Amino acid sequence: MAGTDGTTRTDHTAHPGHADRTTRTDHTNETGDTDETGDTDDMDDMDDTPVMYVESSVAGAAKILVVGPMGVGKTTLIGTVSEIKPLSTEATMSQAGARLDTKVRPSKTTTTVALDFGRITLGGELVLYLFGTPGQQRFLPAWKDLARGALGALALVDTRDLEASFDAIGHLEDLDVPFSVAVNAFPDSTPHNEDDLRSALDLLPHTPLVICDAREHKSSVQALISLVSHLIETLTEAS
């Protein structure tokens, strides 16, 4: 039992009629008042996410980049498809950063400053490790580091501002990273036909172009499958 000296008291009480025991922890503060908590604490939040190990049937793995301008939906897509709790380095946008970055919608208040990371298993045999890159030009040095060892990339595009995607696609071409393009269909996006989009983005005929909704699991997975199919074809042709 604790007094008012800041120590902690733990009572294990067996309740009549019950075979189990409950635990009560009284945290005594400096004023002598006690705060009673239950069995859980902040660390228990980590237990809510099940540990997802790679399946024994997996025969291969690939590092995949998810690239595009700021606000195009990279973090959303990775969070949508990831079978593990995704890692996100979202930070609140500051006035200092606003002077350097391309203007985005007023509702956009955070941005990725290092990377996003997630994992998805396709067909029980292939694991994709997804690395989302920062969208701002000033993070290009980190962007190039993330590209090392990448088998391919999914370039997300927003038709409301196609020009904003030119840099990301250009970087992939400069680094010779095979890629496919996924147009993220925002609610207020204007539909465009494929030929017009290919022409505007200056895509090669063999570069896959799909429409997806980064908020929907099936749609986002299909975009990744399109990329993987393209990578398999590219590797097959090169061999």
Helix content: 10-25%
> How can the largest sheet be summarized?
7 strands, mixed
Percentage of residues in DSSP E strands: 25-35%
- Shape, please? globular
Mean pLDDT: 77
Structural class based on helices, strands and sheet pairing: alpha/beta
Enumerate how many helices there are, as a single number: 6
- Gap between N and C termini: 73 Å
Instruction: Find the count of extended strands (DSSP E, 2+ residues).
Output: 10
**Main sheet strand line-up:** 5-6-7-4-8-9-10
Compute the gyration radius: what is it?
A: 24 Å
Residue stretches low in confidence (pLDDT < 50, at least 5 long) are 1-47, 96-101
SSE sequence, one letter per element: EEEEHEHEEHEHEHEH
Question: If you had to describe this structure to a student in words, what would you say it looks like?
Answer:
With 239 residues, the protein is of the alpha/beta class. The chain contains six helices and ten strands; from the N terminus they run ββββαβαββαβαβαβα. The strands form two sheets. Strands 5-6-7-4-8-9-10 form a seven-stranded mixed β-sheet, sandwiched between helices. Strands 1-2-3 form a three-stranded antiparallel β-sheet, with no helix packed on it. A hairpin with a 3-residue loop joins β6 and β7 (126-132). The chain is globular. 25% of the residues are buried. Mean pLDDT is 77; it is low at 1-47 and 96-101.
